[in-house]
Predict the 3D structure of the following.
Amino acid sequence: MTSLARQFSRHDSYTPDALGVDLGRQLILDTVRPVSGGEHVALHNALGRVLAETILSPIDVPAHDNSAMDGYGLRADDLAADGDTTLDIAGTALAGQPFESRLQPGQCVRIMTGARVPAGVDTVVMQEVARAAAGRVTLPPGQRKGQNIRRAGEDLRAGTPALPAGRLLRPAELGLIASLGIGEVAVRRRLRVAFFSTGDEIVSIGSAAREGQIYDSNRYTLFGMLTRLGFEVIDIGVVRDDPHTLETTLRDAATRADAIITSGGVSVGEADFTREVMARLGEVLFWKIAMKPGRPLAFGRIGQPDAEGDGGAWLFGLPGNPVAAMVAFYQFARPALLCLAGVDPVAEPPLLQVSCTQAIRKAPGRSEFLRGVLFRDGADWKVRTTGPQGSGLLSSMADANCFIVLGQTQGNVAVGELVQVQVLDGIV
Ligand code: AMP
Ligand code: MG
């Protein structure tokens, strides 16, 4: 028995011919490790990249106490115990234009949101309740010492972690890094992912499809899914169902990429020569996942990793049917590729419960990923299917905004029953 197979068979429920979706995903995630290598990039080029090092805040954020309101800054000691308080307006503190002197008893300053709180000021009263006239302002009772002031370091303290290594950089992270005055970050190198389609019947767009041939769509969905994840993509084209071509293509791809994604050629009947070729080049397991669509899946390595875990490439052999290929990509390849790219932790996409407006026939024993449409019905969000669910019907993916995820043990769904959905916008 080879090493991956040995490792996986330690799980009691490891059944390669009827593998549960969650276990399959877990086995893959337990096996892959982030690739090494990184670079420094300017913040503008860091969107979608993965932080390679924890960022410690070099400063307090905010850097100084500042006003949370437009209003009047004062000393709480000057507030009347009950009744109105009237104070002299000694000056103005604007954001970026501080009031430089110390506030004296009986004085206040006009202060704007974000302005540095002047020395002596410990309380801000919002302007909506103040009455100003002739250089003085009158404030109502009921003010609390310390109110409406944002404290220095309230968001982040100097020297404490602002963002952890492994964080995928989204717009909020870019802004947070910028708020620290940092303009360049250490990120992981971009993951290199090669992909190709297999099948004698598959032709690339640009060539005319003859009788019995179909245009290759999987390379375009794969291009899109991989590019969305921020990876460097290597499109290898269509490979004929021929052992020699498959072998040379895989060998070559493994020298250029961290991961290889294939589609087609892993279903029963087709798998035989694929299995032989892959067995020669590394260790690839052929699973039947207890799911629909997307039953056949190959996972393993082509070539040998070096001490760093680099060298060779991880292989994900997706089914050929266009919807099955996409579903299998999202459920198995996506989390694994994010892990390889250094994302830590790889977040599980949320499953939400909504009422289903139609009956669904479903046999227990396998998970199903139906293409669904979440829609608004008055105050509630509900879900329906996109219609026919054939694993070759790409329009069902194009029309969907979610997967309806029916678990392995679930049976038929009745009208109005709650079902789990995975929102596509969270994963595409
Ligand atoms: P396979 O997994 O190779 O048995 O393919 C299953 C089905 O998916 C067959 O009907 C293939 O024609 C179709 N198929 C395989 N690869 C592609 C592709 N790249 N684009 C569109 N359809 C495909
Ligand atoms: Mg095929």
